[in-house]
Amino acid sequence: MNRLKQTEVTNAKPKRGRFVNRLLDGGGLYLQATAGKDGVNRNWVFRYELDGVRHDMGLGPLHTIGLAKAREIALELRQQIKAGIDPLASRDEAKKARRAELARAKAEQAKAMTFKQCAEMYIAAHANGWKSDVHRKQWSSTLSTYAFPIVGDLSVSDIETAHIVKAVEPIWARIPETAKRVQSRIATVMDYATARGFRTGANPARWAGHLDTLLPARGKIAKVEHHAALPFAEIPQFMAELHGKESTSARALEFVILTGVRTSEAIGATWDEIDLKGKTWTVPGERMKGGRTHRVPLSSRAVAILEAMSGNGGAHVFAGSSGQPLSNMAMLELLRGMRPGLTVHGFRSTFRDWSAEKTNFPEFICEMALAHVVGDAVVKAYKRTDVVAKRRELMKRWADYCAKPPKKPEVEAPLPKKTATVTHLRVVGAR
Predict the structure, then answer these.
(1) Claim to verify: residue 119 and residue 204 sit in the same structural domain
(2) Domain range spanning residue 15?
(3) Has this prediction a pTM greater than 0.70?
(4) What is the pLDDT of residues 320-348, one digit of tens each?
(5) Interior/surface letters 199-231, b for 16+ CB within 10 angstroms, e for the rest
(6) pLDDT digits (tens, 9 = 90+) for 255-272
């Protein structure tokens, strides 16, 4: 017993030409020195025999368990064997018990995790990946208004279909678009809860094959409201009027119409995104609705607008007197004074109608000009080149159409003058 000295333990290593060396301390305790990639690994092993079967039981590495502690553990194991207890079996049972205890503790934690807490965890975990702070606020607002009053204080493990229906059914027909967002966000939080181990089983807020059997599809109850758009036949007249207005908002609106972009993309444009020489504007993905970088070919008139704006001295192309970018309402206010009832976004529809009826460009080219997502098969065909050359020709044609002289209103020709005719009547009295 206790054969090893501390220096032997500290310096233990395999003999020359060997991979492993076991040093016996006595009473079944060994120090095993193994040649490793980064040096010598030294671990304690307890060897014992039970019912005619030899067992090797690892006790841990030397850097964690010193010589004195290893001898103490070996003594306890010999006492177990003397009492008829298999040390390995006893350790396995202890591991199972610990795992069961952890599972119980996790289950208790899941019961304590409310939907509101889980939603807040999800928002905090994903907020940095969302495009804007507005999106985060919308998530918090919709859940706080419609979900938390019903399921906020419930454990995520206890939420069932009836709770989800109770939250969304009252607003499903009244504000269907908001109701669908609420349902979708609840479902996402519930999936997050499952992934974190806070609940098990199917998602009670899922739509396909579940809630779609209880609630009508949004498209069947929601009246689709399209953005008011100007008929493309009236674009030349409108552009002529717009060209005559001297303001930053007028140039911004003209630029939006010529490029087919969204309001936010135009007012957020910065000079480092513009390549005047190459007549290209590259909008980074973080500013695009779809999250993908969008290259916009610029017509000659669009370039001329940019050159006219280049003296504003600010980082943004379309900036107000303070140097800050235009507000979202600047172009809309201008438009209301020119054509009440129209929206800036509606000009994208005007462009799309014109491209469909007045050109023979493939549909996917026209959709790409608006930064819309197109089918997978088409994506494979255009991904290599981005078909920017074809889109450049399309946008040139659009700019030429916008610059057409407006039709003069037809003046109705005057009716020819009639020659007055006098009819003499002779009244004959009765006899």
Answers:
(1) yes
(2) 6-103
(3) no
(4) 777 778 887 889 999 999 999 899 999 99
(5) beeebbbbbeebbeeebeeeeeebeeeeeebbe
(6) 999 999 999 899 989 999
